[in-house]
Amino acid sequence: xPLNRRQFIAVSGSLLLPACAATQPAPLPQVLRAxxxxxxxxxxxxxxxxxxxxxxRVPGPxxxxxxxxxxxxxxxxxxxxxxxxxxxxIRLPNAMDGxxxxxxxxxxxxxxxxxxxxxxxxxxxxxxxHERSQEQVARGLYGALIVDEPQPxxxxxxxxxxxxxxxxxxxxxxxxxxxxNRFDLSHGGRIGNTVTINGRFTPIGGEFALRSGERIRLRLxxxxxxxxxxxxxxxxxAQVIALDGHPVAPHAMGEGVTLGPGMRADLIIDCMGRxxxxxxxxxxxxPRELRVMELVYRDEAPLRLKPLAAPMVLPPNPLAExxxxxxxxxxxRFEGGAMGALREAEFDGRRLGIQELVREHGIAWTIxxxxxxxxxxxxxxxxxxFKRGSHHVLALHNDTAWYHPIHIHGIAFRILSRNxxxxxxxxxxxxxxxxxxxxxxxxxxxxxxxxWMFHCHVLxxxxxxxxxxxxxx
Length: 473
Fold this sequence. Notes:
Elements: H1 5-23, E1 30-39, E2 49-54, E3 63-66, E4 70-77, E5 86-88, E6 112-118, E7 123-128, H2 133-136, E8 143-148, E9 157-166, H3 182-186, E10 194-197, E11 200-201, E12 207-210, E13 215-222, E14 229-233, E15 239-243, E16 246-252, E17 257-259, E18 264-270, E19 278-283, E20 290-297, E21 328-336, E22 344-347, E23 350-353, H4 354-361, E24 365-367, E25 370-371, E26 384-386, E27 390-398, E28 404-408, E29 413-418, E30 421-422, E31 428-429, E32 431-434, E33 439-446, E34 450-456, H5 459-463, E35 467-472
Parallel strand pairs: 1-4, 3-8, 9-13, 12-20, 21-27, 22-25, 26-35
Antiparallel strand pairs: 1-2, 4-6, 5-7, 7-8, 9-10, 10-11, 13-18, 14-17, 14-19, 15-16, 15-18, 19-20, 21-24, 22-23, 27-33, 28-32, 28-34, 29-30, 29-31, 29-33, 34-35
């Protein structure tokens, strides 16, 4: 039957739409410019500090998207060094992981690199360099990446605290001992003397304003190069709802929430103080308690008189459940450092004594007896090789006198036990904090193909040998 003019236009348009849609360009990526800038980290009676930053500020811009969306970010490197961006905790394609000489070439000064990947899991994540990270992260190169759930829990505010520290001298200048300090290398790493939250020194005049009766979701990210935080919120019964981005059954955090470098926690806090009241947030991990923030209730009428009744439970992320009964088991030993028993190690194909390793090569740590220098991955075979889809349990042995937050790229794992005792809730994680002489079992499904970094996130320890890779094929 012949078509009239209106029918012809309608049919022609329907035929053309798919072709037009297929040729539409992808949305422009967000540009992250890594460069040198200055920032007022400490009170105004001191000078600004030279920092390395994304888009001229520390932390870098908060990147936010919804679960299942595609993230496109262009790194523009205006630093005096090569760099990359690693998307900490994201289960992404291997080529986007940002590890120099393992997943990509370093981005040279003046160069660019486009990162593009889908965000499979909701939660709190962050980004930072993996090229000379012991220096670049300590100088301020990091930022938050928030992936929102399709239906987030009901809260009045969603806030993010990026925790870090700095080693500043009396002129507020960052002390440039990133590679040369042998004490940091062989002990607890480069712990600074100035703690910041969101790029500001908070104990003097640092206030976080609250309204009585409101419920906040507070996302905590430890972006420090070595410092461990244990935050205690005086006068508030915070509930932990996620760790390392992944949901857990809501539970009270007790004496505090402990975060090693790279780790995150999401809290729900019902703020039931009275107008005008003030409460301290303290870091209690080290012997000297440190005040890091003050919660201050504004002098206004309460939003509500009793805690919000809405549920706090987050929907699970689409993670493959490991089956410990049929999993392959592997022992991983972390050795070295001051007050350790390590006497020699394999390094660049040779066995050398620990004193020579420290003195001549800046090496103090090993994984299964092998020390790896920074990102010389082409000199090393993978620590472990897994078949895609296989199930594994890693028995992590910390045979040192120091803490080690052990991070695995590209996967999430369940923490099963610590020192032979089952871990409550068996949380999902991507970074596990091992205490001195600790034993921990973790389990995962090797479902993301590629060569993945496996290292300590105390960045002086990573730089000093505690680094390897695993392969999923």
